[in-house]
Amino acid sequence: METIFGIDRARKRLFSYQKARPRVVTLGVFDGVHLGHKKVIAQTVSRAKEMRGLSLAVTFEPHPEALIRGEKPSILTPLPQRLALLGSFGLDFCVVIDFDPKMAEKEPEAFIKEVLVGAIGAKAVVVGATTTFGRGARGTPELLEKIGQELGLKIHIVPSVTYKGKVISSTLIRKMLHKGDLKAVEEMQGRDFSLRAAVSKGKGLGRKLGFPTANLDLKDMARPPQGIYLSYVRINGSRKGSLRLPSLTYIGPRPAFIHPPPSAAAVCEVHILDFAGNILSQEIEVIFLEKLRDAKEFKSPTELRRQISRDVKMARKLFAKFAD
């Protein structure tokens, strides 16, 4: 999949790329890239093959709610991870549109005519049944069908995918993740929940205790509740990148005995079992399997070291069962 950033670049790139081939387009934020998204994208790719054309996804960055509601939601899949997942579904192109105030004010009719048709050259549009777009989220599948008839666009509306009677959505996945229901998140996404972020320099406490950790800055990313999790790690940019390395992941406050006193903000630290490589500044993916225990306070480094030893021992037993 080729990624194109910006409407003007998309217009120029697609004009020069086999312009005679029809374009089948889908659109959305696709945060979480869940089973509902996957179904819509599969239909987009399938329709494009039937028409001997090109399949494209249009997505937005930053998340539209940051402007529309003035508050950015916690992100399930940052743009690089989102693009990697979208690309794995067989799309030809993904156009990333900067969601700025001008785009937020664009009427849905104008978005269809100027962006989908004018810039991208859509001949068919595939959307989910709950898709909205344009100013005030007035753009709906019904409006698409109406405008499509005027412009000669083929419109395909894909029924929603449900989970236990509820329509799968990014909002529902965030809700279940914040509750700690990793199984529900896995079933709605069609894969284990994971976080991708660059390793940053920490305080070095884990190394001093004999359990070095990779520190991740999660920023505004969605995450499960505080606690210790059994996890796997994939390391980008290395020969081990395709391997899943057994690990323990901690989400919670720093120990109170650290001086100067730590902030109340939660941290994310990952201890990779039997790993001694230097991955500072590299991006890693942490794949969450299950929660081992809640986060708790420790009065001293010795007390914390003993607990980590118990956690690692338990993790080794569980990973050994997975290997059987």
Compact summary:
The protein folds into 2 domains: 2-163, Rossmann fold (3-Layer(aba) Sandwich); 193-323, Riboflavin kinase-like (Elongation Factor Tu (Ef-tu), domain 3), CATH 2.40.30.30. It is built from 11 helices and 14 strands. The protein has helices spanning 7-16, 35-50, 65-68, 79-87, 101-104, 108-119, 141-151, 170-179, 182-189, 205-209, 301-323, and strands at residues 2-5, 23-27, 54-61, 93-98, 122-128, 154-158, 162-163, 166-167, 194-200, 214-216, 227-235, 245-252, 267-272, 283-293.
Low-confidence sequence ranges: none
Distance between the termini: 37 Å
In the CATH hierarchy, the third-tier topology of the largest domain is known as Rossmann fold
Largest sheet: 6 strands, parallel
Protein topology:
Elements: E1 2-5, H1 7-16, E2 23-27, H2 35-50, E3 54-61, H3 65-68, H4 79-87, E4 93-98, H5 101-104, H6 108-119, E5 122-128, H7 141-151, E6 154-158, E7 162-163, E8 166-167, H8 170-179, H9 182-189, E9 194-200, H10 205-209, E10 214-216, E11 227-235, E12 245-252, E13 267-272, E14 283-293, H11 301-323
Parallel strand pairs: 1-4, 2-3, 2-5, 3-4, 5-6
Antiparallel strand pairs: 7-8, 9-10, 9-14, 10-13, 11-12, 11-14, 12-13
Helix pairs in contact: 6-7, 8-9
Describe the protein:
The protein has 324 residues and is α/β, with parallel strands linked by helices. It folds into 2 domains: 2-163, HUPs (Rossmann fold, 3-Layer(aba) Sandwich), CATH 3.40.50; 193-323, Elongation Factor Tu (Ef-tu), domain 3 (Beta Barrel). It has 11 helices and 14 strands. The chain has helices at 7-16, 35-50, 65-68, 79-87, 101-104, 108-119, 141-151, 170-179, 182-189, 205-209, 301-323, and strands at 2-5, 23-27, 54-61, 93-98, 122-128, 154-158, 162-163, 166-167, 194-200, 214-216, 227-235, 245-252, 267-272, 283-293. Strands 1-4-3-2-5-6 form a 6-stranded parallel β-sheet, sandwiched between helices. Helix 2 links the parallel strand 2 (23-27) and strand 3 (54-61). The longest helix is centred in the C-terminal third of the chain and has 23 residues, at 301-323. The radius of gyration is 22 Å and the shape is elongated. The relative contact order is 0.12.
